[in-house]
Structure formats: C-alpha cells, structure tokens
C-alpha cells in the first residue's frame, strides 16, 4: 500500500471521494486531435497516447461538486486533539482552530449578513492568525481577500479596499493601527485576537454552492493598479486536491508556510494543510530572516518546504549543517524560472529520499503543470522544464493566429480546464478578453497564458519566455509596460523604458531608463518615490538610468537592445558622501553583493535602491555572519539608510563589550581570535568565512574600542580583561586561542592566565607573531630586497586568482598607487575613529615593549608567512618563541605577507591549515 493509499483509508468517506473522484470522463475538446497523458500521482512520468497536439491529465473531465467548509469541518473534528497549526510561539489543535474560526464566522455574519461579499484580511502574514481568518471567512460564506502587512504599501491596500468594495477588515492587534489608517472609516474593523479563547458557537452551517466565490487574489493590471482574480469553491477544491494527491500530504507532515496568503502558493499550502491533516507551520521570513530558518526547520521537524527559487538559493547558500534538513522529504519551488543549478543545490543539501517539485502557474490560472523529481533524475538543459499538465488541465500550443501546433513545436501556451478562476473582479470586459469558453463542451474554458513554450512528445512543457515582455520578480508577474505607463504620467518625463536585467544571484532586477523633458531635471530618488506611491515594491525598478536621448530603431521605436548597461551608464555624483568608516564600507559591500548595486552615498536607502522583503531576510543573515549582531528584517523599516543601519550595528557591537561574534555555529568549542596592534576583529572576517570548522568564532576587542580605557594598559591587564570575557562566553570546557602579530602576545598571556586558573588551553595559534625579544631587534631595511619581495607577493596572489579576476587585481593595484598613493588594505576612518585607533595602537606598542612572556607548558602552532620585506625576519623559523614554549612548537609555512595572510586570495590556504589544527585539538 502506498503512502497515499494508506492515508486515504483513515479519512472520512466523503473526503476519500474528494481525493479519489470517479473515473467518469467528459469529452475533452474534440474540435482537434489531442494526446491524453494519464498522470501517475506522485511521479513525474505518464502513460502516453499520441493523437495530436493537446496535452491533458488523466481526469481532465471530472467535477468537484462541493465547498470547502464542510470538508474542513469534518477533518478538523476528526483530528480534534491533533496539532493543526504551530509556530515557535504557539500552537493550535484542530479543535481550537475550528472553534476560533467558528467564532470569527459568526461575528462576520452578525456584522455583514449572509450575502457573499469580500472580507479583507490584514495581519501578520504568514502566521497562525491568517490560517484562522482564512477558515473563518470561508465558513461565513464570504470571499477572503488578503492584503499585505508590514512590507505592503498603503496605496495598494487602499486601492484593494476600494476596488473590492469590502465593508469589513479582519486584522490582528499588531496591524490594528495600520488597518484604521488605510480604511479611513470606509470599512468596519474586526480584531481577531478579541475572539481568541471564547467558547465554540458551532459551525454556521450556511448553504454554499461550488460556483460561489471563495477568494479574491489581487495582481497587477495593465494600468499598474492591482486587479482581482476570483476563485470559486470548485476551483479552490480542485487546487487543494491536486496539492494533496501530487505530494501525498498526510497528518504526519509538517508544512513550512513562508508564502503570503495573497499569492496562489500561500492559499494552496494553507487550505491543503487543513484538509490533509498536515500541521501548518508559519515562518515569517520578513521578520526573522533566513538565518533563523535553518534552525527553525530542525526544531519544528519540517517535512515540506515551498518557496520561490530566489529565497531557496539564498537559504541554502547560508546553510551551516545539512543535518538540520534531514526531516524534509519534499522541496517545492515555483513562481520563477528554475535552473539546473537549483536542482543541484537540492541534491547537495537534502536527503537521498527527498523529492524536488516545480509548479507552474499564475494568479489567473492557478497551478497548471507539475514536475516531480528525485535525486536520480537527470536534466540535460540549464533551464528546468515546467513539468506535465496538472490534474484537470489540458495544455495546448497555438500559433499567433490561434491554430493548434503539433508536439515539438514552439508556440503560445494555452490551458483548458473546468477549474480556471472565474475571471477578474468587476471586470467582465477584461475577463472576456482573457478567458474563452471552449465550443461544444459545457463548462470548459481556455486561458492564454502569454508564455512561449515547447511541449515534447512525452508531454513535458518547457517555457521559453513571454510573448509580451512580462517577467517575474520574486514570484510576482510584472509587466514592464505598466511601470512605463506610471513613469510617463510623471510630469518631468518625456520617454521611459523598463527592462529586466539578470542579477548575480540568478534572480532578475528591473532597470528603468528615463529621458527628461527639455529643461527638466530628474532625480532617481524622486523617480522611486513617484512609483512607490502607486506600485507595490516589487514593481519599483532597482536601478534608474537617465539618458539625454534614447536609442531608436529604424521605425522610430525605442531600441531596447541598445540601451546601455546600468553599470556603464552610471554617472558619478560629485555631491555624494561615500561610506566613511569600516562598518559603513562593509555594509555597502554587503548591499552590493545582495542587491547588485554600488552604494554611492552613506544616505542611500535600502528600499529605495531596490531592497525588498526577500533581500531584507538575506541581508540580516549576512550581517550576523559579518558583524556577529542580530538585526531583524523589520528593523530595516526603522533604519533603512546605510548610515542609520551602520549606527544600529555599532550600537549592537558595543553591547557585546569584550568580543564580537564573527560566526555562529553549533557544538564544537569556540575559537577566540586576538587582533593586531591598533586593530579590531574585522581583520578576521575572511578567515571566519573560509574556515570550515564547525565552531563559533569570536574576535576579542581591545580595551578602549567598545569599553572605557585609560590607554595605559599592559599586556597583562589587557589579557586579564580577555580572560573575563572568555570565561563569560565559555565558562567550562577546553579553550582554543589564536592571535595575529601583537595579538599573538596577548593570546600567549591570556593562555597563561587561564592556565593559572585551572582552565585547559588545547590550542594556541600564532599568526606571524614575533616574540617580544625577537621583535625588539632592529634590522636594516633593503629597498631592492623589499621591492623583489613585493613582486613575489603579487605573483603569488595572481597565481591563486581565477583568470577573470587577475586583470582586476592588477588594475586595482595600479590605481591604488597612481591615484591614491596608498595601500589598498589601508583602513580609511573618520577623524574621530582615526584618533581612537591611533591611541590604541600606541598603547599596544608600548605594552609590547614592556612585556616579558612567561614559559607555557602547552603545544603552540606558529603560522609563519612566506614573504618578509626585511630579510633578517625571514631567517628565523620560530620567531623566538622556542625560548618560552615548554611544549611542542609546530611551525607551518603559509602563503602571503604579514598583512595579507588573512585576506584573499591567501586566506583560503591559511584557513585550511587552521582547520586541520583545530580538528586535531579536539581529539
């Protein structure tokens, strides 16, 4: 018995019939030959009968005569004591969910009466409240209409309220103020939290029909304003059944819900979880970020993940421990084109029995095709196919005149089904333009997707792009013409063009090109502000380029292929104030990596530059890895400008006092790193990134940087402060320390003091650190020798760099000498910071001159750099430490120079050697 069959035997009879309808078939479109594909549930393969050009699933003619509430009621009552929805703060049993939804339904009916009408939902999304509200609105016979919460726009929400005609907004305590602000008295407000915990008033028991509208999802229209798509109960049930059957959902499943209720994926996950008995586990990616997602999956024992490819790529890129994903049996992606590299990432990070699924669809169609693959599946092309038709759908290729095309051709993808949405809300003209009745077959309708596709002889669908210029941004379908229309409505603009441009992470960004009217001036910040008033964030271009004239074709149209690339079109803003300290420069580098944008001004705004909720989640994980501080995505709303966020990061760093967490990890003992004279822990960030050892990494902070100091400390007193910090972080267990240059001496003294307190130091590493006595020797400098060593250093770096990075390295070194006259690795700080670090540097040098190390009876590893600018420094193997080391002193030669051994491209080899040493210290 299969998993699907076993689960069915435990379901009520009417739900079994819902999942396994009779084999009665109605004729599919017989106006032209078609090939029928009988889909095997849970497998990507199908039996094939070749008869023509259409592709249909095995039960393309079945009908679902029912509504969602009775099925949900039966399932929830059957599993009354089982968990139905749960996050890391709270859980609801099926009985509690049903009770709360019943209370909401009765309250809605009391306020609105029994007639079907839209009810807006504005709350923490995804969250437990959304699940309750969705079920309660459906039980009341109303049309649930989700509205975005924190990252949505007030203008968009207000338009949905006006267009839907909703008289009631269901919200929670967190969004009560927002709901009142955009409703402006036009709709009643119902706080769902006021109904939590009241006795069950019983099910409303309203008579509902399959044709009755169930939900209203809004997308973007040709004018740039959202337009609603209406789903009936029949369409909803069809979609839910497909989800349950294809993925064999069962009460033992725990489904990670990250999608908003306002998109098809969020609706499908929520409703299929209720009907299958699976536990719905909301995770608010916008608030918590990708950094917490991995541990959340482990702690919540998640079995199914569904998200968009962009989020998936960023999530797996930050995975620390694949074991955390061992519970996951299914990963479903959709909303954006999938590449073979995405499947390779799945195979790399998920167990051998896990399945990989891709669903294709849109708000106007629901899911129309499904691809399911295992680790053994092989794909030949770089772009993954979209799968075969979903149950109840027939996929047809047509040419530009509407005639069907044979298998293997390329043409416009059209779908036929009895389960397509009803059309656009209050827009019969637009509905009739997009949805067509199929002649001769009752209830069968056709929707032209606008996608160009190819269907091979096995029925596999491969998307080839859009017939129009639509693109998908984070799962949302966007028409650039809509954005252009909004730009052209702006007074200073004479011409506008918007194109989609690939990003480095495999995603897509929008670039807007503007030509101002004669005498007008256009600011890119003003352009973003103008668009944000009428468009959602994902429709505001990340980049803007202002041109004097547009390139034109021979026919006078804008030659989009000749538009300059954004990077080449950028003009330096002489009034811009660049990032002015190490924190701001590091943050600017992260923004560039995540957004693909070059930050020019320290007042640049994360969201105005194109950042959205998905980028926010990724950014917060990157901040924790780089700075060791926890920043929530919602905090970006409060401090969106680069200098503001830098200030918040510095504030968090100060609160860590004596150490900065560079890398958070699991069970192994921490590694404590000591910086050089006048330096801070950021020198170790590349080492922490490259180090594969599974251990937390802390960088020790010198006195005076984040704490009060008289700047007269000795190495002994500096080490005493480090001992207190280390014991607070790691009160028990074996200790591991390492320092570079001056930090080697402070690490040595810290180890001595820890040993004196009875602590065991199992690893002490010295990165090109000279003993105080050896360093006190003055060696003559030879300019020719130094120049030869510098050349040797650059050749060694070039040898280790990929070919495409070699020229960049040479160019940057030339520019650093000719233009700025300073070293590339020299730190640039504000005057105040420069003074502070100068005081720390002088204090450290004075402390080193006075320091007399005591003997240590422990094993020590000296990482000795290969290149020295003074010949005599390179002639000593042990740098004078043998005199003080009573244990074993191991000397390892690492590539690079004193200041470059911990920086690319040499840091990777240094990290590899350190990793082996740390591994040995644990034995």
N-to-C CA distance: 48 Å
Shape: globular
CATH superfamily of the largest domain: ANL, N-terminal domain
In oligomeric terms, what are we looking at?
A: single chain
The biggest beta sheet reads:
8 strands, mixed
Assign the structural class, choosing from mainly alpha, mainly beta, alpha/beta, alpha+beta, or little secondary structure.
Answer: alpha/beta
Number of domains: 4
- Binned, the helix content reads 25-40%
**At CATH's second level, what is the architecture of the largest domain?**
3-Layer(aba) Sandwich
Q: How much of the sequence is in beta strands?
A: 15-25%
The number of E-state strands comes to 36
CATH domain fold name of the largest domain = Rossmann fold
Number of helices: 29
Can you describe this structure?
The protein is of the alpha/beta class and 923 residues long. It folds into four domains: 3-64, no CATH class; 68-455, Rossmann fold (3-Layer(aba) Sandwich); 479-569, ANL, C-terminal domain (GMP Synthetase, Chain A, domain 3, 2-Layer Sandwich); 657-795 and 836-923, 3-Layer(aba) Sandwich (Rossmann fold), CATH 3.40.50.1820. Helices cover 35% and strands 20% of the residues. The chain is built from 29 helices and 36 strands. α5 links the parallel β6 (118-122) and β7 (143-147). α8 crosses α9. The longest helix is centred in the C-terminal third of the chain and has 20 residues, at 831-850. It starts with a helix and ends with a helix.
Summarize the structure.
The protein has 923 residues and is α/β, with parallel strands linked by helices. The chain folds into 4 domains: 3-64, no CATH class; 68-455, Rossmann fold (3-Layer(aba) Sandwich), CATH 3.40.50.12780; 479-569, GMP Synthetase, Chain A, domain 3 (2-Layer Sandwich), CATH 3.30.300.30; 657-795 and 836-923, Alpha/Beta hydrolase fold, catalytic domain (Rossmann fold).
